[in-house]
Amino acid sequence: MRRRVRKDEEDEGDQEDSDDEQTNTKKPIKVTSSTTKKQPPSKKPTRRRAHDSDDDDDIVLTSKPKRSKGQASASSSSKRQSAKSSAQHNEDDDSEDDIIDVTPKSTKSKSKATQKQPSKATVPSLTKKQTFKTPKDADSENDDDEDSSDDEAPNITLTERKGDLFAAPANTLLVHACNCAGSWGAGIAAAFKKTYPDHFAIYTAHCKSKTPNSLLSTCLLIPPQPKGAKHWIGCLFTSRKYSRGKDSKDDIMDSTDSALQDMLEQLEDLEKQPTGIWMCKINSGSFRVPWSQTKALIETLTFKGGLHIQIVDKK
Ligand SMILES: Nc1ncnc2c1ncn2[C@@H]1O[C@H](COP(=O)(O)OP(=O)(O)OC[C@H]2O[C@H](OP(=O)(O)O)[C@H](O)[C@@H]2O)[C@@H](O)[C@H]1O
């Protein structure tokens, strides 16, 4: 049975092809085991660029998600449990208008059980530059100390505030959740489509070049383009389809986990990096996942040297 054709599908004639592909559901290629949350730098999957050109600002893509569905479910379920537990205490937080400092939680158990987890007092105050300067420098400094604790504990901090995501300074990375069908047809995605036509063309071309299952759980980072504001856009592929065809909440959470980790690994590898990260309350609109769950998940992730993400929501 065919589902109802939405207006945005009519605007994007290629949509049907993308959807049809999804009937051949095959699982994405996986590279991590169910007991390993994150690959060490030396084991990162090889990435490739979407468009070969002389411009170093080409789109950086990942080749694959990090886990199989089963693996993702197994490894992410405990994280989600923890995230959900944490979310229970924050169910009413979604409507907050003021800036909220969020202390990272030490919910991610790693190989070093005795490792000291960072407290709020020990987490450095992150400037924009500090946000991204550490990966490569730290890599060289820690070549002889692969087990350095820098990237072991959750160290991603969030602040939440009311505002317009598109008001970010130039060269900021704006992150939102996407379907794998090549549509930015509703919610904040529709605003992205209008404001960043060149970015949208790259997103649709990327979706056409791959199957939904190979896109799922990955992130597409699109650098600033000639038209539109000079922002990076981070597309997290958290559901195969959209509207009534969207994935289940649990599947969206699993995909969000992997897509975010993919984004973080790509950021570590970038030569020219965004100057900051702003994110909407991903998954909380059309995808119907309570923001508190996604927020708790983000707080379990790690980034070498620490990372600050501004959550900006118009409501
Ligand atoms: N200017 C602005 N500044 C700041 N925050 C803004 C804003 N405008 C809206 N928001 C908020 O942004 C959050 C996310 O809500 P959204 O419904 O957009 O996204 P989502 O992540 O749940 O779902 C993704 C699918 O939605 C789309 O539409 P389609 O699938 O095509 O139908 C895509 O294509 C995906 O597939 C909500 O908190 C909104 O208040």
What is the CATH first-level class name of one domain?
Alpha Beta
Average pLDDT, all residues: 68
How many strands, what sense, and barrel or not for the largest sheet? Answer: 9 strands, mixed
Number-wise, the strands total: 9
- Spatial sequence of strands, sheet with the most strands: 1-2-6-7-5-8-9-4-3
What is the overall number of helices?
9
Give a quick set of tags describing it.
alpha/beta; disordered N terminus; ADP-ribose_metab_enzymes; 315 residues; 9 helices; EC 3.1.3.84; ADP-ribose 1''-phosphate phosphatase; binds the ligand Nc1ncnc2c1ncn2[C@@H]1O[C@H](COP(=O)(O)OP(=O)(O)OC[C@H]2O[C@H](OP(=O)(O)O)[C@H](O)[C@@H]2O)[C@@H](O)[C@H]1O; 9-stranded mixed sheet; Leucine Aminopeptidase, subunit E, domain 1
Notes on the protein architecture:
- Pfam families: Macro.
- Keywords: Hydrolase, Protein phosphatase.
- The structure is a single chain.
- The chain has 315 residues and is of the alpha/beta class.
- Strands 1-2-6-7-5-8-9-4-3 form a nine-stranded mixed beta sheet, with helices on both faces.
- The protein is globular, with a radius of gyration of 19 Å.
